[in-house]
Amino acid sequence: MAASNKNVPKVPKEMKLRKLSVGYYFNTIKSKMLILLFMMAFGIAKSQDRIELGVMAGASYYIGDLNPQKQFYKPGFSYGGIARYVLTDRFALKGTASMVRIKGSYPDNDVLFPEGEQTYSFNRAMGDAALQMEFNFTSYDHPFIGTTNFTPFISFGLGTTIYKRFSTDIENNSEQTVFILSLPIGVGFKYKVNKWVRVGAEWSFRKTFVDDLDYVGNNLPVNPDDPYGFYQETTLHNNDWYSFAGVSITVSMFRRKTECNSGY
Asked: Which residues are in the DUF6089 domain (predicted)?
């Protein structure tokens, strides 16, 4: 026996329209979200062909009270990673993170202090991180010009140096990890080996605003309060620098697109 439809309540037309409009609203939102996600993924994929990742290695050395001007003074081994985002054929953003080592000794390098009688040496490992802008002197790695495989460049930016600072104020002659500001500047060249591999060499300097990179204990050959001493808290004597010279190899993570103009 068939069931009677006489007692089945009718759904008001307004409610049907409301359900339809709500469903349409959510479907529209989902569609917009999918479109947005697609656009974001497309943007990321489009930028990936401009990303280079690699490694670098070389020598680092110190410039300061113990070594006022000699280049490549007691060099130590340094190594790290490099990431580059290509903006145009003339500009690129470069990020680096590395471990550097600096050394020094006294008396050495024709440096004599008025009250310096005892010998002294230091050997310090430091962390270095920097974000720099690279400017290419010539067009480099242009997707439509086959002769842009080589360029000299300059780089400059902001960085930080991480090291153990000797302190007589904390726990009686202890060391604490500090982060200090550094100003990196460098010169170098880059060469495109093929569609994927690039090699380069750079000589860079880090200007710091401290005077204790060579200060690793109490056995200093001079009185720290003396104007000719190692460690000076005044800005006038904050003259410690360090330098890095090395080579790098990077890999383009995705093959460079060759559509017309493609951002160039």
From this structure: 33-254
Nearest to 143 by CA among 199, 84, 195: 195
Give the C-alpha separation, 113 to 221, whole Å.
Answer: 8
pLDDT reading at 227 higher than 60: no
Weakest-pLDDT range from 19-33, 59-73, 167-181? 19-33
Q: pLDDT tens, 88-109?
A: 999 999 999 999 999 988 777 6
DSSP-derived letter for residue 236 is G
Q: How far apart are CA 96 and CA 82, in angstroms?
A: 5
Are 155 and 133 within 8 A, CB to CB? Answer: yes
First to last CA, the chain: 78
4 vs 1, 9, 11, 13, 167, CA distance in Å? 9, 12, 17, 22, 93
